[in-house]
Amino acid sequence: MTRFRTLFRAGLLTFFAFLIPLAAQAAPFAAFVMDGRTGKQIHAQNADTRLHPASLTKMMTLYMAFTAIERGQVRLDTRFTVSSRAAAEPPSRLGLRAGQQIELRYLIRAAAVKSANDAATVIGENLAGSVPQFAAQMTGMAQALGMRNTQFRNANGLTESGHFSTARDMTTLGRRLFYDFPQYYSIFSRRSADAGIATVRSTNRTFLDNYAGADGIKTGYTRAAGFNLTASAQRGSKRIIATVLGGTSTAQRNAVMAQLLDMGFGKAPTRVKEIKPAPPQYIVEHKSSRKVTVAAAQKSSARPTAKAAVPASVAKASVASKSLNSALNEAMALAASEPPARQPTGAEQSSAGVRLASSARPPGRPGGRASAADEAVKTALADTAPAASSVSGGLSVSARPVAAPRGRAVATQTAAAASTANIVPAAASDDLALEASPKPQRRSETVIVGEGGGSGPERKPTEKVARASSSGGQAWGVSLGRYRNRDQADERLIQVAMQESDALDGALRHIRESSKGYEATFVGLSQSAAAKACANLSAQDQRCDVTAP
């Protein structure tokens, strides 16, 4: 018996010794909320801390693909070749094989909807020639978009040294996808899609189905990153875009995101002047070290113009003389020589750098007049028939990809769109390191505090925390104390709602106004749930009282 006890204790010590490093490696939490119409901050928490973005990386991969399509470098029916590296990527995967050829349209669907790592790698390799070259271009584009704390090392977001971003930067990227490529943005709201060799299901369908107004955009997960999400939602005239990094589970991440978006809709003004982001600019630096600015700006319009009606000669003339790869590579050279956090001056912004063609805000809801380009794009990304290119105006029907024979090695071919120019590698400077970013707060303190400007509409006295309680007879509640004004009471309720999401699941937050102040309460709980929530809060020295029916 003594021997058994000794072995049992030794086993327990080994088990807990294994758990300690796992707990120490828990991903830090970060969040950022933005008014999508203006780009103004509503809430920030560890927003500039450099963390692992995981598959949120694919938002930039897709941004680069959409840019290449718009510049005429590739078309939606361009067939990309799968390399052995891409075929060997870990899940999530589309199931591509080395040597296989597949149309870009299917790769876009797989990367956006299923978050397929192999599809993202194929896109990067065929656009730039290799993953390192594509990652350098992604970093250059990030700098041009104002993402000052982002650096990429691959196209799919798998954990790699030197690959990082922030909640603020990912939210900025989500907004750019919405404004710069409205004709492709709907791909992020798909619950499923035809990816050529398989029908793929969305990794974000749960949130899309359960949050009113949500229409995108991207999830992400790795052990190092935790559960990440950049989401966008529209209600009435308001559009809110937010990012959560370091969630502890899919359910917890989605619950936190719902609270952040609720906060955003409550804080954002109903009427505001829309501020569209300017097209990204590049200052091209040639080998002679003489700075030359080359303008390739395209005027924005209310709706994307139908490029099919433009003669081929004119269309070619409208594309910048330098390819996207060359422009990005030269931009990287300049970015490497300047501090990333430096903001361009007004004079620099006024000088016409190389501008990428950017589209205006998406057209209105169904019922308005759709331009020829709108219809062409919808057809292009539809799950049924092959589509018309948004650049050339019409593509011939192409067959679906055929898987290469198993067991036979086929050399990876470089796509025609890949640049032959020398690629400038991303600089591994001290300011582009995870360690250089602000140290995140402890997870136990990562409760959300409402902030930001904007005078929102008058709040209703009762609001949902997650979903309405179905019990019908639960009349117990929790009181968090009285506050000087309604905003303080509401912010406290939001903090606790996310902190105790399990115990308060199904509760309603309610603010009771009296001559003594504004009492923050949760109602619609069972006695056990109310007691559990208060016990958890009291253990953290936070005020809480159980209220009986």
Portion in beta strands? 15-25%
Number of separate strands: 18
The main β sheet shows up as:
5 strands, antiparallel
Shape: elongated
- Strands of the widest sheet, in order across it, are 2-1-9-8-7
Instruction: Give the proportion of residues in helices.
Output: 25-40%
Q: Could you tell me the mean pLDDT? A: 73
> DSSP helix count?
16
Whole-Å distance between the termini? 53 Å
Please state the CA-atom Rg, rounded to the nearest Å: 25 Å
Structural class: alpha+beta
Model regions low in confidence, pLDDT < 50 over at least 5 residues: 16-25, 282-324, 335-435, 442-473
Give an overview of the whole structure.
The protein is α+β, with helices and mostly antiparallel strands and 549 residues long. The protein is built from 16 helices and 18 strands. Helix 2 (57-70) packs across helix 5, helix 2 (57-70) runs parallel beside helix 7 (167-180) and helix 5 (117-128) crosses helix 6 (131-144). The protein starts with a helix and ends with a strand.
Outline the secondary-structure elements:
Blueprint: H1 2-24, E1 30-35, E2 41-45, H2 57-70, E3 79-81, H3 84-87, E4 101-103, H4 104-114, H5 117-128, H6 131-144, H7 167-180, H8 182-185, E5 192-194, E6 199-201, H9 205-210, E7 214-222, E8 226-235, E9 238-247, H10 250-267, E10 281-282, E11 284-285, E12 291-292, H11 312-318, H12 324-337, H13 346-350, E13 354-355, H14 372-380, E14 462-464, E15 476-483, H15 486-499, E16 508-514, E17 517-525, H16 527-539, E18 545-547
Antiparallel strand pairs: 1-2, 1-9, 3-4, 5-6, 7-8, 8-9, 10-13, 11-12, 14-16, 15-17, 15-18, 16-17
Helix pairs in contact: 2-5, 2-7, 4-5, 5-6, 6-12
